[in-house]
Amino acid sequence: MFLGEYQHTLDAKGRVSLPAKFRTETTDRLVVSKGLDGCLWVFPADRYEEFASNLLSKDDFKKTSRKVQRYFMAGAAEVEIDSAGRISVPSVLREFAGLEKELAVIGAGHRIEIWNAEQWAAYNIEAAESIVDDAEELSDLGFL
After folding, report:
1. For residue 66, what pLDDT is reported?
2. pLDDT (tens digit, 9 = 90+) per residue, 11-48?
3. What is the C-alpha separation between 126 and 52, in angstroms, rounded?
């Protein structure tokens, strides 16, 4: 399971180091895709295959299903962790997430998320304002 928040930088070649704790939780093959809320999602390759299989099991004749499949699969890229513990983030995904020099690399359970550091800070402020109400709503629904 991926947990924690780490501050990293994107190098001139579009590479980012993954935290050592994350590298021990995965194989050398990862899949990077668009995520939600303006970040990138990084999955171990086998976990992405499960995720994609679930997406592909939906009805292709439904507009929403096709849209979600395309969103998560069209820009996805398989990457490898190099000997220095870095992955190379394709330029189209860097542009999508607004990745510049300063990054936040976070553990989100079954996936890693890569954020523009300023966007991550803004997201945290916004989330903090509603987390009590959100947690209560999920509790009322039986999720917590």
Report:
1. 92
2. 999 999 999 999 999 888 999 999 999 999 999 999 99
3. 30
Closest CA to 107 of 39, 49, 28: 39
Domain 5-116: homologous superfamily in CATH: Transcriptional regulator MraZ domain (3.40.1550.20)
Burial category of 90 from C-beta neighbours within 10 Å (exposed 0-12, middle 13-18, buried 19 and up):
middle
Q: What is residue 90's DSSP assignment?
A: P
Cα 77 from Cα 34, distance rounded (Å): 10
DSSP code for 89: P
Is-contact 51 31, C-beta < 8 A? no
Q: Delimit the domains of the chain by residue range.
A: 5-116
Q: What is the residue-wise DSSP string for 7-41?
A: EEEB-TTSEEEPPHHHHTTS-SEEEEEE-STT-EE
Low-confidence ranges of the chain (pLDDT < 70): 144
Q: What is the pTM of this model?
A: 0.92
